[in-house]
Amino acid sequence: MLSIALILLHSLAHFVEINEPSRPPNIVLIVADDLGYGDLSCQGSRSIRTPNIDALAREGTRFTNFCVAQPVCTASRAALMSGCYPNRIGMAGALNHTSLIGIHPDETLLPELLKARGYATAHFGKWHLGTRPKFYPTRHGFDTWAGLPYSNDNGPLHPTIRGIPPLPFIVNDTVVETDPDQAMFTRRLTDLATAFIRENKSRPFFLYLPHIMPHVPIFASEKFKKSSKNGLYADVVEELDAAIGEVMKAIAAAGIDRNTMVVRSEEHTSELQSRQYLV
After folding, report:
1. pTM across the whole model
2. How does pLDDT run across 257-277, given as a tens digit for each residue?
3. DSSP-assigned letters across all residues of 62-91
């Protein structure tokens, strides 16, 4: 994850250097929570179909020996957003609903750097860098956000721990729903992402889309239940792939596909794919 931040910043700097005074590229950063290295057809899976992710791998740049800073939620996201080793900034491990700490306000995060360059910034998905309002994405460079403050098992659906408070779904710092239908997470985040793309097509934007699935507990929407050949997990991954396809279609429909950098990664594994349209 440390490398993603460096890749994005280097690519942005290179683009601006060779294209000024052209508009800077849009950046779409998609993260899947706990998706396995071999769970994609472009990675050899014969039981899960991922044509849209395969297209990113085929048409873009593929990093097959890419390593996250730590194989755990909060730490890896801290590295992704800050470009720092997570232990250096006190973000080891994974936070939960009882945690009092979060990403320090003095840390300069990727959305803050991009916002300073005139980017619109949005976060839709799992944050996991602090559960208190002072740590929320809107305090760290994001214009808007919607999603969970921590993992989707940190609620009544936890497989072993009982008594955890309801899981909050937050929109711009306000809890709008508790214990939402988890089968709709992928659909819900995709709708938010595509709307953001349409609304900001006339200006540079940074869209951070850290999907909640396939972190356990896993759910697929009705459209994708039993649609795969390998059970619920494959249903969930194929729905994620379809969601990425919708994001790519939204970019093309907005007429900005030649000026958009798309990066997709798994949170806890070592594979990354990117696709760049830099004119």
Report:
1. 0.91
2. 999 999 987 665 545 665 544
3. EESS---S-SSHHHHHHHHHHSS-GGGGT-
